Amino acid sequence: MIGPAPTRAEVRERLLDLLSSRCTREEVADWAASWIREATPDVSDAVVWSALKELSGADLKSGPDEYLHEESDFHQWLDRLETQ
User: Fold this and answer.
1) For the segment 27-49, what is each residue's pLDDT rounded down to a tens digit?
2) 2 assigned to some structural domain
3) pLDDT at 77
4) Dihedrals φ, ψ of 62, to 5°?
5) Number of domains in the chain
6) From residue 2, how far is each of 6, 31, 33, 47 by CA, in Å?
7) Domain extent for 39
């Protein structure tokens, strides 16, 4: 176990870090993936779980120099997190 599950506020902060370039896509994806990879993740909030799954793919590429997700996707993820 890697520790307590992140809160909505912590996930929100990671999304804001991503949008403001305080963290790279890879850093945020690795952070989120650490819970996704757990055999028995202790994430009871479905909204947090959904956001972690999305964030774990923030660094996916659709080509050698092109990311699959754009900044508009990150804004949508943040909106969902804040409205659900």
Assistant:
1) 999 999 999 998 888 899 999 99
2) no
3) 97
4) -100, -5
5) 1
6) 11, 11, 11, 19
7) 8-83
